[in-house]
Amino acid sequence: MRNVKDVREVIPSFKAYSAGLSIGEIKERYGLNNIIKLSSNENPLGASPLVQKVVVDHADEVFRYPRVETPGLVRAIAEKVGVPASRIVAGNGSDDIIDMVIRIKCRPGKDHMLAFDPCYSMYPLQAKLCGVEYRSVPLDEDFGFSLDKLADAADENTAMVVLVTPDNPSGLSITADEIEAFASKLPPQALLVVDEAYIDFVDSYEKYSVVPRLDRMPNTCVMRTMAKAYGLAGLRLGYGIMPEWLADYTLRVRLPFSVNILAEYAGEAALKDETFYKETVRVVVEGRKYFTERLTALGCKVWPSQTNFVMFKPPMDALVLFEKLLQKGIIVRSLEGYDRPDLIRMTIGTEKENRAVVAALEELLA
Ligand SMILES: Cc1ncc(COP(=O)(O)O)c(C=O)c1O
Q1: What CATH number is attached to the domain comprising 344?
Q2: Could you give the number of structural domains in the chain?
Q3: Ligand 1 lined by 41 (C-beta under 6 Å)
Q4: pLDDT value at 146 more than 80
Q5: Band of the pLDDT at 18, cuts 50, 70, 90?
Q6: Ligand 1 center–CA 199 separation, angstroms
Q7: Average pLDDT, whole number, for the chain?
Q8: How far away, in angstroms, is 94 Cα from ligand 1 center?
Q9: Is the dihedral of CA 325, 329, 331, 334 positive or negative?
Q10: What CATH number is given to the structural domain containing 198?
Q11: Domain-ending residue, one of 226, 256, 272
Q12: 268 and 123 share one domain
């Protein structure tokens, strides 16, 4: 006999997403006032003043539904990235776009997705939820991309291939030349998804982003988020740059008001605030250099990062170090969840935060 609690077989195997420790939890646990949170790759400078102003100015509109297609925001994004607006779909964070594209492109029980392991968790999770087989090829021991192995794993049932570059959690990036050469080896039905969540922080946009060459890469969809360099993680805003046919299907099936009314205003304001954006990138690039040099001097192995975080292996038990940093009010990300308990991922903070973290590490690693 069936009962009301019967659900799709896959559902009970899911665990609620764990976003790591919050500032409130750590304050309470250790009785601390000042917390440095470097665990979620958020913007070190907070939110742009222009964004804060439009959120306040439009607070009285929150009882209204937003416009369904967020035309002003989509136009502003299209202008910024240099593609026609018909190729842009905005969503409730790039997670929303990732979810929709998997559901549109992959046929459950027939197709599979292909990615490196480890990969940003939303890809395997949403594939599983959709009943789509998820195949992975391990990254090298040192987190390098074996692109040939990934291309070899693609066959006539591969509906989607995912590349996260710059990568999370390693911070490593492959070049647009390498991605373009890889794309040319994929079977014709395979959609290449390039997740450029961290593209704002690379040393050279031309060298690393595929967006300027999308006209030559017709089966490619690029995922972007405004949670990092634009400081909108909490408002939730991301977008996809897609082939027109895919953008068309996505707009047909998306939930109608997935970009909320404040995120729409905030997104437009964030794109206008060049000063805040440039200062964010400057602080991140300088902080990244500082962390890389200082951590290396302390005996850590630091992966060369093109993102707003660094991944490192400390010269002591990384889980013990993680706990000791927590006791000092410094929240970083242990990579235990990626089966690498020997590694830590740490977001670049403000100059002051970075100095405080290095001082703490000097004491703990001495
Ligand atoms: C590689 C990658 N893609 C996508 C996202 C999600 O971005 P959003 O907050 O816009 O959903 C993240 C967030 O950390 C990420 O690391």
Answers
A1: 3.90.1150.10
A2: 2
A3: yes
A4: yes
A5: confident
A6: 12
A7: 96
A8: 6
A9: positive
A10: 3.40.640.10
A11: 272
A12: yes
What digits encode the pLDDT tens for the residues 338-359? Answer: 999 999 999 999 999 999 999 9
Instruction: Give the chain as a 3 state SS string.
Output: CCCCCCCCCCHHHCCCCCCCCCHHHHHHHHCCCCCEECCCCCCCCCCCHHHHHHHHHCHHHCCCCCCCCCHHHHHHHHHHHCCCHHHEEEECCHHHHHHHHHHHHCCCCCCEEEEEECCCCHHHHHHHHHCCEEEEEECCCCCCCCHHHHHHHCCCCEEEEEEECCCCCCCCCCCHHHHHHHHCCCCCCCEEEEECCCHHHCCCHHHHCCHHHHHHCCCEEEEEECCCCCCCCCCCCEEEECCHHHHHHHHHHCCCCCCCHHHHHHHHHHHHCHHHHHHHHHHHHHHHHHHHHHHHHCCCEECCCCCCEEEEECCCCHHHHHHHHHHCCEECEEHHHHCCCCCEEEECCCHHHHHHHHHHHHHHHC
pLDDT tens per residue, range 73-116:
999 999 999 999 999 999 999 999 999 999 999 999 999 999 99
Lowest mean pLDDT among 14-23, 36-45, 65-74, 312-321: 14-23
Quick one: 248 and 304 in the same domain?
no
Find out whether the beta carbon of 225 lies less than 6 Å from any atom of ligand 1: yes
- Ligand 1 centre distance from Cα of residue 77 (Å): 17
As a whole-number percent, the residues of the chain with pLDDT over 90 amount to 94
Q: Which amino acid is at 313?
A: K
pLDDT above 90 (res 22): no
Examine the fold and report which residue of 217, 245, 272 is the final residue of a domain before the chain moves on. Answer: 272
How far does residue 175's CA lie from ligand 1's centre (Å)?
Answer: 20
Residue nearest to atom 7 of ligand 1 (CA): 94
pLDDT score, position 19? 79
Tokens 């492109």 correspond to 105
CA gyration radius for the chain? 21
| Domain assignment of residue 204, yes or no | yes
Mean pLDDT value of segment 265-284: 98
Structure tokens of 22?
């919050």
